[in-house]
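Lay summary. Proteins are chains of building blocks that fold into shapes, and those shapes determine what they do. In this project we predict the shape from the chain. Here is one chain we studied, written as its sequence of building blocks.
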Amino acid sequence: MTEMSLSEELQWRGFVNQTTITDLTILDRDKPAFYHGFDASADSLTVGNLAGTMFDKVFMRHGCKAVILAGGATSLIGDPGGKVSERQLQDEETISNNVSKVASQLTKIYAGHDFTLVNNLDWTKDLSVLHFLRDIGKHFSMTPLVQRDFIARRLGEDGSGISYTEFSYTLLQGLDFQHLYDKYGVTLQIGSSDQWGNCLSGIDLIRRTRNAEVHVLTQPLVINKATGVKFGKSEGGAVWLDTAKTSPTQFYQFWVNIDDGEVEGHLKVYTELGRQEIEEIMSTHKLDPKKRYAQKRLAQEVTKIVHGDEQMHVAEQLTRVLINEISVGDMTELEIDEMRNELSSTKAEVGNSLVDVIVRCGLASSNSEARQLINNNAIYINNKAIVNQIIQNTDFQNGRLLIRKGKVFKNTALVELS
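And here is the predicted shape, written in a compact code that computers can read:
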């Protein structure tokens, strides 16, 4: 593709929402040092957070100094933004563990790029109350603070109210910006649009205490158009980057199932593919949308970024088996090992009762439930409706078979020949 400037790429990928910068081309000339903070209220990032890391990587690719902040202190307080009621406070040990795990994920995602990872607990843990009130609090007027959307909603007639603890969060975020301005020369804070009000605190504080101009740039929240909620949230919960919470195959399949109307936008946000390549992907996809070519490319690219090439390949192969593109008998031992981690599994012999095998592999809780599933034609062996209620030699493919309950691929079990 033709090389784009930083400002052009940010706009093309859809990363520009609100900003205090009057002319984004200033970024092309100044290459500002920036910081982006990540919450540590959970021990893993989600695909919603992943959009923020891809925002960061655009700046990194264009040579901007990156400071990535883990919220070891602010996560102890709790961000009131986007919340209708008070957060449940977590203890220091939990937050510390979360910071460590999130930092590990960030390091993997940013591989190949230079960045500085910091923890705001380092400069706030010894901060005295008097210092905070005299040197930070005195620079903030209450009037604009209570008028900020997320605070005004909590204080309104139908709001749940807000404690001083959560109210002080925005001041702590301002302090972060001031500290990073002083120590690393950071002049730009980036974040998601729901952080706009908090980001303004740093601008005001630095203007008053350092007589300097700094800026903020936020990206739009990625919203699932079908549900209207933050991207990555579903009925089953969030889609996590931690393999213990969302397996690489589940992660890969999440992207394969993206709607046609959203896939191009996600290719821009969640991959580092260039304009020409994404245009070519979409042109190929539109020739036969049922093949889900764009979704598969999206799934490949994002899974590689988060889990690496090898896990991406395994996840892709497992998915192809589950949708009957390839046979379970053609899988390598490494792929079968991963399948045992992904699916419930058991061993069986030719002649075993199908009812017994269904119960043993956890697709039914009792023999009567298993029989009901069989009678309702809800059981498939190797993606085909069953013919016999006894395991046949021909059911095995290289000593393996798959049993599925219903149409949902996650309700699949691996059965290996004893």
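What the prediction tells us: The chain has three domains: 6-221, 247-326, 342-417.
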